Hints:
The chain is an alpha/beta fold. About 40% of the residues lie in helices and about 20% in strands. The chain has helices spanning about 1-25, 45-50, 80-95, 115-125, 140-145, 170-180; strands spanning about 40, 60, 70-75, 105-110, 130-135, 150-155, 160-165. Strands 5-4-3-6-7 form a five-stranded mixed beta sheet. The chain has a two-stranded antiparallel sheet with strand order 1-2. Helix 3 links the parallel strand 3 (about 70-75) and strand 4. Helix 3 (about 80-95) crosses helix 6. The protein is globular, with a radius of gyration of 19 Å.
Amino acid sequence: MHMQALKIVILSLALLAFAVASAQAAVVAAGDKLGDLEFPAPQSTDDAKALGVAADKPFKLSQLGVPFVLVEVFATSCPHCVHHAPVMNQLYGLIQKDAKLAGKVKVLGLAAGDNLNNVASWKKHFKVPFALIPDPDLKTYKAINPLGTPTTVLLNKNGDVLLAKAGAFDSADAFLKEITALMK
């Protein structure tokens, strides 16, 4: 009887290990093709204007009209995202100052599972200069399939993943170099 129970436990553990490995392999990575992602409607006219889309309608990646889009997947309840917010603001500033990137890269934050009030508070508290889009039903989050929050994803206009970085990074300068190297 003990041998049968032991076999069941071993088989269960093997299946669990396989499931975890499969889930990890499915996480967004460079080379993935996400296609023409749909994002929820921007909740402010300023964010809609920054993105060049209507404020009251969902929009697609192709509507952003730039060769590259940098998506910061975050959650207002995520302590790592709190640490990462100033770095993303700095990265946005560096992109805007770079003559080769300004106008070619749009930056947006996708607030996973968050509502308008949380996102508005986040934007005000951290003085976020780029568009933040609430994703309360996690539809776009699931389409991107990040490892968690924060995850930063560089997409081309076709929805091809050029770079996917799970977790917070400390240097906006170093990340900008990675981005620039991929845009050649």
